[in-house]
Amino acid sequence: MQIKFLGTGSAEGIPVINCNCDHCTRARNEDGRLTRGRNAILFSLPGYELLLDTPPDIRALLSKNNVRRIDGIFLTHPHHDHSGGLEEFLYWKAELDLFAETKIYEALRREEWGDRLPEVAFHCVFYPGMAIRFDGFFFTPFAVYHTAPCFGLALYESGHKVVYTSDTSKRFSNYADCLMEEADLLIVNTPRFSPPHEGHITSTEAVELKDRVRARRLILTHFNHENKPHDELEEWAKGLDGVTAAYDGLEIEIRGS
Predict the structure, then answer these.
(1) How many C-alpha atoms does 237 have within 13 Å on its Cβ side?
(2) Residue 216 needs a FRET pair 20 to 30 A away by CA distance; which of 3, 13, 107, 122 works?
(3) DSSP characters over 70-127
(4) 63 and 52 in contact (C-beta within 8 Å)?
(5) Burial class (CB in 10 A: 0-12, 13-18, 19+), 133
(6) Where along the chain do its domains lie?
C-alpha cells in the first residue's frame, strides 16, 4: 500500500485568503511545506487507486501530483471542503466508483446535484461496520462524531492495518477504538494544535489517542492556520515516538508481510 497526501490543510487551506496572521504571511512569503491545499489522500492499493475526499481544489491537487488514475472515491462527509470538488469529475475520462453512505449521497443530491450525481460516478453504498472486500484488500468504514454524518475507515492489506479517522471530535465509540487498536498507521485530522476545540480532535489529543490504542505510527494532517507552521510541527514531532506531521506531497509506503 502506498499513501500520498495530496493536500493537508483544513477548510481554509494555508495561506488563508485575506489573512495576514504570522502563519499565513510566512506561507505566502516562503511557500514550500508551509503552504497547504485542502485535505485529500490517495491510497494506492492492489489493482485499485482510492481517492479519499474531493475538496474544491482537487483539480489543482491532482495536476500538481500528476495523478492520472483513480478507480474510486471514498467520501467521508458532505461538508464542502471535502465534497466540493466532485464536479471536477464530470470531466474525468474514465468510470469511477463513489463510496458514500446513503445520508451523505442523498444530502448531496438534495442540496447540490439533483439527478446529475450519477453522471459523476457509480454509487457504491456502504454502511458503518460493513467490510468492503476487493481482491487483495478490504476496508471497513466507521462512524465518528462530527457536525454532519461522517465516516473514517480502516484499510487492511497484506497483514497491515491503516486507520483514517476523518473529521472527528476526541470522542470515539468503543467499536472505533477496537478498529484502531494496534494499527500499523493511524491518520488523524487535527486542525488545531491543542485544546480547547469542541468540534475536532487536536494534535496533542491525537498523540494521546495513539498511545491509548497502541498504534505503531501516527500521521497528523488537516491543519489550519491556527495550528503551528510545518517546521514547528516537525520539530515538535521529533520528540515523540512514531509521530509525523504530514505536508502536501508526502508519500508513505506500508510494506506487505
Answers:
(1) 20
(2) 13
(3) --EEE-----HHHHTTGGGGGG-SS--EEE--HHHHHHHIIIIIGGGHHHH-EEE---
(4) no
(5) exposed
(6) 2-248
pLDDT digit of tens for each residue in the chain (257 aa)? 999 999 999 999 999 999 999 999 999 999 999 999 999 999 999 999 999 999 999 999 999 999 999 999 999 999 999 999 999 999 998 999 999 999 999 989 888 787 888 889 999 999 999 999 999 999 999 999 998 999 999 999 999 999 999 999 999 999 999 999 999 999 999 999 999 877 899 999 999 999 999 999 999 999 999 999 999 999 999 999 999 999 999 999 998 55
Q: What is the pTM of this model?
A: 0.96
Nearest to 155 by CA among 132, 125, 181, 122: 132
The H or E element spanning position 191 is none
Amino acid making up residue 125: V
- Grid cell, residue 128, equals 458503518
Fold topology of 2-248: Metallo-beta-lactamase; Chain A (3.60.15)
Nearest to 203 by CA among 251, 239, 249: 239
Between CA 207 and CA 191 the distance in angstroms is 14
Provide the sign of the torsion angle of the four alpha carbons 218, 127, 67, 221, taken in this order.
negative
